[in-house]
Specification:
The chain is mostly helical. The two termini are about 55 Å apart. The structure holds a DNA duplex. InterPro entries: Myb_dom, SANT/Myb.
DNA sequence: CTTAGGG
DNA sequence: CCCTAAG
C-alpha cells in the first residue's frame, strides 16, 4: 500500500525531468542522471538486497526535503539542485561508491571502471565493455527499464528509508497511508507523461516513450566530446539479434573462435564475444543459447514400437494355443489384409466359432477367460501390421473383423448405444486394442453405412471387407431404436447385466 | 474417466 | 484413428 506510493515518488522526478529536459537542453548532465540513480536504487532494492545500501535511497528524499520543495514542484527542485551540486560531483566520483556521493551521480563523469561498476550494480552482473558511451547507454537503459519494476520494490519503506523530513514521505512512513491520497497527489505530476501512479499502468508504452526520449537525446548526451556518434543498438536489439543469429545456425560459438575471448575484469574472468551490429562491433557476454530441454520425442511412437516388439516376440508362441482346427478354415472370412496373420487372428476367429457353442450367458462368462489365455499372446499381437508404422506414432490401424463387428452389434443390442464402456468390458475384454472410442467410431461407421447406401452383400469401396447384410440390418434396427425417442428399456435384463458389471471393477 | 462429435 | 469439449 504505502509501498506503491513510495515507488511513485521515485518515479515522479524522472518523469518530470523528461519533460523539462527539452527545456533544459543545455543543462548539465546531472539533471537526468539524477533520476536515473534513483531508479537504479529502487531497482536494486527489489532484486538484490545486498547491492545497494539503503542510505542511498535516502538521499533522494533528503535532497528534496532540503530544498523544502514538495514533490509537485520537483521540476523546480531539479533546477535548483543542478548548478550548486555540480562541482562536488566530479571529485567525488573517484569511486562509484554511491554512499559517498553527495547527492547525485553523473554517469558522464565516471571512468570506465566506474561505469563498469555502475553497470554491475545496475544489472547485477559484470561487464567487460570499455566503451564509455556504451556503458552509459546500457546503464541508462537498464535504469529506465526499471520503471516497470513492480510494486514489490517498496518493501523498503519499512526499513526507515523514509527518514527524511519530507512531508509526503513522512506521511507514508507513518504507516497506514491513504494510499489513495498519497498516490493521487503524486499521480498528478506524473500524469502529464501519461504515466499513472499504479505499477500496473507502467507496462509498455510508458517505457517505450522513455526509451525514445533517451535515444533521441543521445546527441547531446555526449559531454565527452564526440559530436557525431553512431547509434548503438539497444539492449533489446542486441539480444534479439543474438537470438536471431543463433537461430540462423551460427549458434555454435566455435564457429567463430576468434570472436570469443576471456576477459579478466576486476578479478573475474568473463567470456565474451564480439558481435557486430549496425556496423559497430560490441562485446557481449557469451551465453549459450543451446536448447537444454530434452528434445521432443514421440513417446507414443516408442510405445508402439515396444508393443510391436512384443508382438513379434509373442507371435511364435502362438503355437501353444489350444484352438480348435476348424477356426482356421474360417479364416477365409477374414479381411484380406489379415490373411497372413491367420495364426495370430485365430483368437478372433476363435471367438466367432465359440460363440455359437456357448449360450449368451456362458459366453460372457467364458469368453474373457478363454480369450484371456489366448489373449496373452495375441493380445496386442498383430503380426500383420507393418513395423514401419511403429514410427508413425499413430495407433496401429487394425481393420475390424466381422467377428468384431458382430460382437459390437451384439453388445449394442445388449447394453444399448453409447454404453461403450460396458460393451468393451463385457464383449471386448480380449481385444485390448479396441478402445471404447474405437467401438463408438466403428458403430458410427456402421450406422452410417447401414442407413445410407445399402451395400448388402456388396463391397464397400475396395479393400474393406463386406459386412454381412444381416449385421447391417441389425445395426439399422438398433440405430432406429435408439435414436428416435426414448428407447424403451424393455430390456430389463440389459440393465441387470450392466449392473453386474461392477463386479469386474 | 467416459461420451459425443468433429477432424 | 486422433483430438477435444463436455458431463
Amino acid at each position: 500500500m504505502g509501498q506503491l506510493a513510495v515507488i511513485a515518488i521515485n518515479f515522479t522526478p524522472p518523469l518530470k525531468l523528461l519533460q523539462s529536459k527539452e527545456e533544459l537542453m543545455n543543462g548539465s548532465q546531472m539533471l537526468f542522471v539524477l533520476p536515473d540513480t534513483k531508479f537504479q536504487i529502487s531497482t536494486e532494492l527489489s532484486g538484490n538486497v545486498e547491492l545497494v545500501p539503503s542510505k542511498v535511497l535516502l538521499q533522494e528524499p533528503i535532497l528534496f526535503s532540503s530544498n523544502g520543495c514538495s514533490i509537485n514542484q520537483s521540476t523546480d527542485v531539479l533546477n535548483a539542485t543542478a548548478s550548486p551540486k555540480e562541482p562536488a560531483l566530479s571529485t567525488a566520483a573517484s569511486k562509484p561508491d554511491f554512499s559517498r556521493v553527495p547527492g547525485e551521480i553523473s554517469l558522464a563523469n565516471l571512468s570506465i571502471k566506474e561505469l563498469q561498476e555502475t553497470f554491475r550494480a545496475t544489472f547485477g552482473r559484470e561487464t567487460t565493455s570499455k566503451d564509455k558511451r556504451w556503458l552509459k547507454r546500457r546503464i541508462k537503459m537498464g535504469l529506465i527499464n526499471s520503471c516497470v519494476v513492480p510494486t514489490t520494490t517498496l518493501t523498503i519503506n519499512d526499513s526507515k528509508l523514509i527518514g527524511g523530513d519530507q512531508d509526503a514521505i513522512d506521511a507514508f512512513s507513518k504507516g497506514t497511508v491513504d494510499e489513495e491520497t498519497a498516490t493521487e497527489s503524486i499521480d498528478t505530476p506524473a500524469s502529464p507523461d501519461g504515466i499513472k501512479g499504479h505499477s500496473n499502468d507502467f507496462g509498455h508504452s510508458p517505457v517505450e516513450t522513455f526509451v525514445d526520449h533517451y535515444s533521441g537525446n543521445e546527441d547531446f548526451e555526449g559531454e565527452d566530446g564526440s559530436a557525431k556518434r553512431v547509434r548503438k543498438p539497444t539492449r533489446r536489439y542486441i539480444e534479439e539479434t543474438n537470438e536471431k543469429q543463433q537461430i540462423d545456425g551460427s549458434m555454435i560459438p566455435s564457429k567463430d573462435p576468434s570472436s570469443i575471448q576471456a576477459v579478466s575484469s576486476e578479478g573475474r574472468v568473463v567470456v565474451t564475444r564480439m558481435v557486430s551490429l549496425a556496423g559497430s562491433r560490441i562485446q557481449v557476454p557469451y551465453v549459450s543459447h543451446v536448447r537444454r530441454s530434452r528434445p521432443r520425442e514421440n513417446i507414443m511412437a516408442l510405445g508402439e514400437f515396444r508393443s510391436k516388439s512384443w508382438e513379434v516376440k509373442a507371435a511364435p508362441e502362438e503355437g501353444n494355443l489350444n484352438l480348435s482346427p476348424p477356426q482356421l478354415s474360417n479364416d477365409v472370412n477374414r479381411v484380406p489384409g489379415v490373411k497372413s496373420a491367420s495364426r495370430c487372428v485365430q483368437k478372433e476367429s476363435d471367438k466367432d466359432h465359440l460363440k455359437p457353442i456357448f449360450t449368451d450367458v456362458d459366453q460372457e462368462m467364458m469368453e474373457p477367460e478363454l480369450l484371456d489365455s489366448s489373449g496373452d499372446s495375441s493380445d496386442d499381437n498383430f503380426v500383420d501390421a507393418p513395423i514401419t508404422q511403429s514410427a508413425s506414432g499413430r495407433k496401429l490401424h487394425r481393420a475390424w473383423t466381422i467377428s468384431e463387428v458382430e460382437k459390437l452389434v451384439e453388445g449394442v443390442s445388449k447394453y444399448g448405444v453409447g454404453k461403450w464402456t460396458e460393451i468393451k468390458k463385457l464383449s471386448f475384454s480380449p481385444y485390448t486394442h479396441r478402445t471404447t472410442v474405437d467401438l463408438k467410431d466403428k458403430w458410427r461407421n456402421l450406422q452410417k453405412a447401414s442407413s445410407s447406401n445399402r451395400m448388402e452383400g456388396g463391397l464397400k469401396k475396395h479393400g474393406s471387407m463386406a459386412i454381412p447384410t444381416h449385421i447391417m440390418l441389425q445395426v439399422r434396427e438398433l440405430a432406429q431404436k435408439q435414436s428416435p425417442i426414448s428407447r424403451v428399456v424393455s430390456k430389463a435384463r440389459v440393465v441387470k447385466r450392466s449392473r453386474s458389471r461392477n463386479g469386474f471393477l
